[in-house]
Design brief:
By secondary structure, the protein is of the alpha/beta class. The protein has two domains: 284 residues, Rossmann fold; 237 residues, Jelly Rolls, CATH 2.60.120. It is 25% helix and 26% strand. It contains 19 helices and 25 strands. α8 links the parallel β7 and β8. It is globular.
Length: 678
C-alpha cells in the first residue's frame, strides 16, 4: 500500500493532493504551491526531528585504487551508535566527487557541528535579514547556511543518521588524491563510474547509489549519469552546467575573469595536504606519490590559459573538442534528476537548459531556479512562501528514489521559479504557458527616464523611424564601470553582493557608461519568460568589436535592476542555425554562435553589421508602473575579457550603435501581456 510520512514520521494514507497550499498561506499562489504544502512540512519534520541513529562515524582515510593504478582518497560517513560504532546495516550510498579538498569540507562540517556554536550559527543565518539595507547582500550570503546548501555540498549528518552512507572523494590530482587533475576529462569521468561500482561492493551499501553536489560535483554527477551506470538511481545537482563554453568559459567569444581566479584557487588547494591523514600518508608512502604528481602538474591548465589569452595560439581559447568531451550529455540521462540553479549564476544558461534537455517525465526531472548567484543558492528557502530548504528537498528526493518511500516529492514542482520582481511560483513548464513572441525596437527618441546614461533612448513595440528620419550613430566607449555592477557580482560568483546594492539592485553607476533604451510605464503587469535575443546594428573603427548588454526592470523611483545579460564579439557573430532556438514563425529567440577559430568572420572597418546577442533565459514580472530597459555597452570588465590579439587588432577602436530604419535594432523575447507602443 502506498504511504506518505506525516510530520511525526508515522506512515499514513497518501494525500490525493500532496501540493496543497500551506494552511496559513494565501490560496492565490500563482500556478501552484512552491512551498510543497503538507508534504514538505512532513519532509522537514523528518529532517529536523529525531533520526534513526544517534551519531555518525567518519572515516577520513579511505583509499580507492582506480583501474589505472591511481589512488584516490575518500571520506566515508556512516550512521553510528551512541558510542560511535558504525552500523553494519547496508544503506544507499550518496557519492560526491569534487576538487575542493576534503579537508575544507570536513572543516565546514566541524564548524557547523560544534556544540552550541553550530546551532547558533545556523539559527542566526536564517534569522538575520538585511533586505532593503546596505547589508542585504551580506545576509544573502550567510543565508546559504540556513537554506541547506552547505549540507548538500558537504557532510549531511542528519541524512546519514536517517539511514544513508555518504562518500566524499577528492578528484584525481586534487586534495589528497594522486594523479593529474583533468578538469572534467574522460579519465576523471571514468573515475566516477568506478567509484559507483566500488561503493556497491562495500558492506555498508545495499547496491543503490545517488550522486549529489554543488557546482563541480553537480557537473560530474551529471557526467556520470549520462553514462547510465545501473547502480546510479538518482541525482541531486545544485548549479551544474551543460555547456561550459557558453555559460562561463567563452561567453559570446569573450573570456571571464572567473576562470583564472577559479583555476588558481583549485591549484592552490591541491597543494594542501589533509592534516588528519598526513602522518599515515608519510608512513605508507602516499605523501611521496602525492608530491610526485603535484610536481608533474603544479598549476594545471594555467600556462595554456595564459598562452591562449596572450596569443590565441591554444585552441582551447576557442570552442574546441576539449570542451565537447567535458560537457554532460544531458539527453542521455535516464535516472531521476533534480537540478537547482540561479538566474544570475555563473551557469545561468544551464539553470533552465538542463531541465529542457532531460528526456525524463516531469516529476522524474525537476527544476528549481532562484533569483540569486552561485554562492548564495538556497537563501530564503524554508520561508513562509518559499521552497523547502535544499537539504530537505535532497532527503525527500533520495528517500523516494533510493528507498521507494512514496512521499510525494515526484509531484513537487516540477518547475519551481523565483520570478524576478515577484515571488516563488510552481508550474509545469518553462517558459510559462501562454507566452507569445514579442519584439521591441530601439529608437533614438528620448524616453525621459535615463538622463544619466550616455544616451536616453526609447524601446517601443512599433518599428520606429529615427527622430531625424535618417541613420543615427550612437558612440559608446569601453570603460571599467562594470567593476560596480551586477556583472561584477556574477563574475565573483555572487561574493560582490556583500559590497552593497549597486552590485545587485542598482545599475545607475554602470549605466553612465552605456546606451539606454526604455519602454513607457506598463499599466498592467507583464511576465517575461524564456529566451531573450537582442539584434543590434553596430560598427567599429577597428577590426573587432565587443558588445555587452543587459535587460533591466526600472522601478517608478528610477532604480534599474538587471534581469539578464549577454555579450558577443563581432567576429563571432556567425550562427549555427540548427542549434539556435526559433519560434514557430521563424523569429530567433536564442542564437547559438559557433565560437570557434575557423568560423570567425572578418569585421569590416567602420561599416555597420548585424549581430545577435543572446541573453541568459529568465523569468520576471514587470509590474504596473515599471518599465523595461535595454542597456548597451562597449564592454563590461571583468565579466567579459577581450583576448590580447583582438585588443591589438581593434587599435583603440571607437564603437557605435547604428539606429537605421532600414536595419532596425530590436529585442526579441517571450512574454504574457504586452508593452505600450508609445
Amino acid at each position: 500500500m502506498a504511504y506518505r510520512l506525516d510530520p511525526t514520521g508515522k506512515k499514513t494514507a497518501r494525500a490525493t493532493s500532496p501540493a496543497a497550499p500551506l494552511d496559513d498561506a494565501p490560496h492565490s499562489l500563482p500556478l501552484g504551491d512552491p512551498t510543497g504544502g503538507a508534504n514538505a512540512r512532513a519532509w522537514r519534520a523528518l529532517v529536523d526531528g529525531k533520526q534513526l541513529y544517534p551519531r555518525v562515524h567518519i572515516d577520513r582515510n579511505v583509499v580507492i585504487t582506480m583501474s589505472d593504478g591511481v589512488r584516490l582518497r575518500a571520506t566515508v560517513v556512516r550512521p553510528a551508535t551512541r558510542l560511535g560504532t558504525p552500523i553494519n546495516t547496508p544503506y544507499p550510498a550518496i557519492l560526491s566527487v569534487n576538487p575542493y579538498n576534503r579537508a575544507l569540507i570536513e572543516g565546514i562540517d566541524e564548524a557547523l557541528n560544534v556544540p552550541v556554536f553550530g546551532k547558533a550559527v545556523r539559527a542566526a543565518s536564517g534569522a538575520v535579514d538585511g533586505t532593503g539595507t546596505p547589508f542585504g547582500g551580506l545576509t544573502r550570503l550567510t543565508g546559504v547556511i540556513s537554506g541547506g546548501a552547505l549540507d548538500v555540498f558537504g557532510i549531511n549528518r542528519n541524512l546519514v543518521r536517517s539511514g544513508y552512507t555518504q562518500v566524499f572523494v577528492d578528484v584525481r590530482g586534487t586534495g589528497a588524491s594522486q594523479g593529474k587533475w583533468q578538469i572534467f576529462g574522460m579519465r576523471e569521468q571514468k573515475d566516477s563510474l568506478e567509484l559507483i561500482d566500488w561503493a556497491t561492493t562495500q558492506p555498508w551499501c545495499n547496491g543503490r547509489v545517488g550522486m549529489a553536489g554543488w557546482s563541480y560535483s553537480a557537473i560530474n554527477s551529471l557526467q556520470a549519469a549520462d553514462k547510465r551506470p545501473r547502480a546510479l538511481e538518482a541525482v541531486f545537482a545544485i548549479e551544474g552546467c551543460s555547456d561550459i563554453v557558453r555559460d562561463i568559459y567563452i561567453t559570446g567569444g569573450m573570456h571571464s575573469a572567473f576562470i583564472p581566479i577559479w583555476l588558481s584557487m583549485v591549484n592552490l588547494l591541491k597543494w594542501v595536504p589533509n592534516p588528519r591523514t598526513l602522518l599515515s600518508d608519510l608512513g605508507q608512502g602516499d605523501a611521496a606519490r602525492w608530491l610526485r604528481d603535484r610536481v608533474k602538474s603544479p598549476a594545471t591548465e594555467i600556462p595554456s590559459l595564459l598562452w591562449g589569452f596572450l596569443t590565441t595560439r591554444d585552441e582551447r581559447i576557442f570552442d574546441d573538442p576539449y570542451f565537447d568531451e567535458r560537457d554532460p550529455k544531458v539527453g542521455n540521462i535516464t535516472c531521476p534528476t533534480f537540478t537547482v540553479g540561479g538566474w544570475h549564476d555563473l551557469f545561468g544558461n544551464s539553470s533552465t537548459q538542463i531541465y529542457r534537455q532531460l528526456n525524463l517525465k516531469p516529476g522524474e526531472k525537476q527544476m528549481l531556479v532562484g533569483n540569486g548567484y552561485h554562492v548564495d543558492v538556497g537563501t530564503g528557502h524554508g520561508g513562509r512562501f518559499a521552497p523547502p530548504r535544499l537539504d530537505v528537498l535532497e532527503r525527500a528526493w533520495f528517500d523516494h528514489w533510493l528507498k521507494d518511500i512514496d512521499n510525494g516529492v515526484e509531484e513537487y514542482g516540477p518547475v519551481t521559479l523565483e520570478q524576478q520582481g515577484g515571488g516563488w511560483t510552481s508550474g509545469t513548464e518553462f517558459p510559462r504557458p501562454g507566452v507569445t513572441t514579442q519584439q521591441l525596437y530601439l529608437s533614438d527618441e528620448s524616453s525621459g527616464s535615463a538622463p544619466h546614461s550616455r544616451h536616453d533612448g526609447s524601446l517601443a513595440a512599433t518599428k520606429p523611424a529615427s527622430a531625424t528620419g535618417d541613420q543615427v550613430s550612437l558612440p559608446v566607449q569601453a570603460g571599467v564601470r562594470g567593476l560596480v555592477s551586477r556583472d561584477m557580482a556574477q563574475v565573483t560568483a555572487g561574493a560582490a553582493i556583500a559590497l552593497g546594492p549597486k552590485f545587485y539592485a542598482d545599475s545607475s553607476f554602470q549605466e553612465r557608461g552605456g546606451l539606454s533604451f526604455t519602454t513607457p510605464e506598463v499599466t498592467e503587469p507583464v511576465q517575461v519568460s524564456g529566451s531573450v535575443n537582442l539584434r543590434l546594428y553596430v560598427a567599429s573603427t577597428g577590426e573587432e568589436g565587443t558588445w555587452t548588454v543587459t535587460l533591466n526592470d526600472v522601478a517608478p523611483d528610477g532604480t534599474s535592476t538587471v534581469l539578464t545579460n549577454g555579450g558577443l564579439t563581432v567576429a563571432h557573430r556567425a550562427l549555427d542555425h540548427a542549434q539556435s532556438e526559433w519560434d514557430a514563425d521563424g523569429n530567433l529567440l536564442r542564437p547559438y554562435h559557433y565560437l570557434t577559430r575557423v568560423r570567425k568572420l572578418p569585421v569590416p572597418v567602420d561599416r555597420p553589421v548585424a549581430i545577435d546577442v543572446d541573453m541568459v533565459p529568465t523569468d520576471a514580472v514587470i509590474d504596473a508602473g515599471h518599465r523595461l530597459r535595454v542597456d548597451v555597452y562597449a564592454a563590461s570588465f571583468p565579466r567579459f575579457l577581450t583576448l590580447v590579439p583582438d585588443l591589438i587588432k581593434a587599435r583603440s577602436r571607437r564603437q557605435r550603435l547604428v539606429l537605421d530604419p532600414a536595419h532596425p535594432s530590436y529585442l526579441t523575447f517571450q512574454a504574457i501581456g504586452s508593452f505600450p507602443s508609445a
